[in-house]
Amino acid sequence: MIVNNGGTENLEITMSSINTRSHKAQKVIERMGKKLNRQIVGSLVACVHCGMCTNACHYVLANPDDPTYAPAYKADQIRKFFKKHYDWTGRVLPWWVKAKSLYTDEDLEELKDTVFGKCTNCRRCSINCPMGVDYATFNRMARGLLVSVGVMPEGVAVVSKDQWEIGNQMGVLKEDYVDTLEWLAEELQEEWGDPNATIPIDRTNADVVYSINPREVKYDPRTISDAALIFYAAGENWTMPSECWDMTNFGLFSGDDDLGGAVARRLYEKVEELSGKTLVISECGHGYRSTRCEGPNWGKLDVKFPMESSVITMLRYIREGRIKVDKSKNTTPVTFHDSCNNARSCGLFEEPRELLNLVCSDFREMYPNRTENYCCTGGGGAMSMSEYTPRRLKSAKIKADQLKATGAEIVVTSCHNCVDGLTDLIRHYKLGMQVTQLVNLVANALVIEKKVMVPVEEITADLAGYRILVADDEPDFVTFVATILEDNGAAVMRAYDGDEAIKMARHEKPDLMTLDITMPGKSGIEVFEMLKKDDDLKSIPVCVITGKPELRKLIYDRPTTPDGYMDKPITEENLLINIRKILKVHHHQETVESKKQI
Amino acid sequence: MPEKLTIKGRTVRLLKCDITDLEIESFVFYAREDLALGSGFGNAISVRGGPSIQQELDNLGPVETTAAVISSAGELKADYIIHAVGPKFQEEDLEEKLRTTVLNALKAADQKGIKAVAFPAMGAGFYGVPLEISAAVTLGIIIDYLSGETGIEDTAICLLDSREFKPFENQLSSMAAA
What we know:
With about 600 residues, chain A is α/β, with parallel strands linked by helices. Chain A has 30 helices and 13 strands. Chain A has 3 domains: about 15-150, Fumarate Reductase Iron-sulfur Protein, Chain B, domain 2; about 155-455, no CATH class; about 455-595, Rossmann fold.
């Protein structure tokens, strides 16, 4: 069926066609020949255009009058140049099979819009295809072909480069990562009054090496400290690596198998270097799929140690009696969102439900669920492609309806990407639900008898002496944040627009500033830039709190990023965790600086 | 397998480390034409080195592919950063452009009187230059250059992981044997 796999000798790629084709288009066609395998070719040739995939796709359900969202149509945009160059039907009957080549860079841009902007690679159409066409697999291949010639959304480029060169997809530097772990360990020890309640870094011969998503370090450290508490309660011999700790893998989203292999290899080799027994992967759908299922193939590696999701680990601890839980501690109605990568690609859907029923008293199923569940709409790297945000949120209507129908107040998911995607759509559709993970619920349900109570004063007044500027144009929100901070001892100043924020920052020199992005006068982005360019103000740590997550380009695109970032709505607990972390890290950095000067 | 080669008393070393955190007089950053530092190593340079580096670059760019310009290194451990604009993503004449880029980086260092330069795996990783080509070109040009008249005494190739290290080690080994 395939006339040639190598590309360069293919009769269809003649010299005349090369002369009229752009360099990038030529490279895409040549590289396709190297990427075709049995699974991909099977999917490319098997489609009978029956339409069974159409209503499986959340993009189609949100755009019923636009055929360009139909999986079969999207697949045809890739299929047509496969037919033209690698399938005999395209040579013999090109008009019949609609074979068509790629010629210009504009053709590549159009393809980019389809493969990155109209599909999250959720694979729901794949499991609904009677012919076994796995569109997501060759959609990913097409992404990889475009990435290889530098055609990709800007966010994909930013994140990929961070993961290639810094070693994690959020560009967290080693010193910041280690600082955060040490700070969390100190908090844990203080809370439990036990030096063993810690986060061991680079311990050799540990039974568990715990790998995480960089989002946990940067925006959700509570998931790390909750996991640490569970390991402590279970008496686990565990560790976290100081380097090569990122279990996420942007290669899955970008289609870059080289990146996929490199990232997975780094983590595997780190586990071997530490002589770890088992690699435990924190709750992340694409991280779990990449690390446990795809990484060995991308990296062509024989991994000698077992790998498991932390969901399995927590469930195992309860079954083995290593931890005790009390489900009456989690009484708020919860539902569960299956991550596409966990459920459809890895079969991980019964264990989280078993765990939920052990730690929550009111679990309500969402329909459809398990492998038929709808995508959070933030998968496939969509959260990093801000140019497609309106499309993404429109397509989220089906997910919003699913969530609302459960009547639950909390949606639980075992995926950090889904946490962001769901949080965004919940805000957009004003559902008023919270998003959390199993690790948080398990930690909350733990029964630990030896808990040492910390005097109330130490908890409630730990921001005493700090001066914090709250800048936001919503008076109610300012009051909410200010009240929490003042109750915890901070002196709070308030600014209601960008100009006032800058003026007060110059005048008051606060120890920290919370900053909304969309404000009258100067936007939060302008305020942030002015702060960072001003020698007197640039050291003021900034925590962005925004209701416009599509403006996260502030975080991803700029050389100097904010010290913290939170999506609205926020909770008191999350606000305090973030503020304390930023002040602590900032204090540590200042101490290091002053030591250097001495 | 050798991890170091000496030519006329000048050294080429292979290291496994983060180039932006290295204590060396200068290092090469595989730059964009607009000289925006961006993400990846650029992010590390911005965060660790401070905003003065990008401010300095704003007055130097844009430059063409294969050009190399030097900036200070802000608060980094190095004194200088050599911003070398190499070829990217399978672009035409990739190998030739990579050769010229490495050569221009060395010449720029010499003109500045710099004696020690660290290189990353030039163009490998995000920009897709195959590691074998990166190793052959980078080491080939460096060794040629150190064999001639130059004030550069020490060069290091900083590699991120075993995947990058192995091809450079193989290349250095075959060059040492030759």
